[in-house]
Amino acid sequence: MLNVTFLGTAGSLPTPERNPSAVLVNREGELILFDCGEGTQRQMMRARTGMMHLNYIFLTHLHADHMLGVPGLLETMAFQGREEPLTIAGPARTTDLVKTLRSLCHSFRDFEIRALDLWPGDVLRMEGYEVEALETNHSVPSVGYVLRENQRPGRFDREAAIALAVPPGPLFGRLQHGECVEIDGRTVRPEQVMGSPRPGRKIVYSGDTRPCRSVEDASRNADLLIHDGALADEMADWARETKHSTASEAAQLASRAGVRQLVLTHISSRYSEDTLRLLQEAKRFFERTLIAEDFMKLEIKLRDS
User: How is residue 154 annotated by DSSP?
Assistant: First the structure.
């Protein structure tokens, strides 16, 4: 299972329909949060995502609309009796932020909170997947992220195994786990009965950024690209000045990268009641585009190639 829930999709200013930035990934029951705008803990309650299995908070940058929800979320988890450690990772000075929070939040006395400053290229490896920090282009130190699952074994060819005189049972399992087996003095190797390795799933989250090569390269064949799509083409000059992306710029990047799905987020309050304009401009370049809405949920399916 790999699900993505959009908890906050607003630009710099929240609206009645949109909370500040927060994207939650549920991977096999483990929760990973990307950005944590004000009120994220309440959004999690409304979406019924739970929060006690949250292990990582990845911040893209330290603008208020992306991190003000951290203190409230920590306090809520403490009140609910959390004891397991939590890691907060982000760009330069994230560790300074966490030090400041220690003086504000009682939760630091209840469970361990680890802090990491990340630079582009840094990789955190977990069980079954990894998260890599990407270079982005914003007005303050910032990173994007790619969540990349480990490669999966190829499909087991039962007929091929039987043709090689491998009896059904435990030897099948050993071959599927990459072990050679002996049959009547012959060695049967896993590659004789296993198909080509299959890719894990990949999600890229840009945070606030201008379109940039590093995000494009990381997004090659991604299952999902979540990209800053704050503005319409009419505001292209303002997007360049404030280091954001227009919807059409994000769509062109998605097209070049060959992603399977693009979701635009960080939607400017200018378009809070008229996102159709952003969608139309993006779809001129990439048809498989969605505009993120608060509480929108996507399931990322496994694929064979």
Answer: P
Is residue 259 situated within a structural domain? yes
CA angle 58, 59, 63 (to 5 degrees): 170
Residue 194: what residue type? M
> Measured between alpha carbons, how far is residue 203 from residues 146, 161, 220 in Å?
6, 35, 10
Helices (H), the chain: 40-47, 64-67, 69-79, 94-102, 158-163, 170-176, 213-218, 236-242, 247-257, 276-283
In a domain, 304, yes or no: no
Question: Would residue 65 show up in a list of annotated catalytic residues for this protein?
Answer: yes
Quote the pTM value. 0.92
Tens of pLDDT, residues 166-210: 999 998 989 888 899 998 889 999 889 888 889 999 999 999 999
From CA 25, how far away is CA 55, in angstroms rounded? Answer: 11
Domain span at 216: 2-152+198-299
Query: Catalytic one among 65, 208, 223, 294?
Result: 65
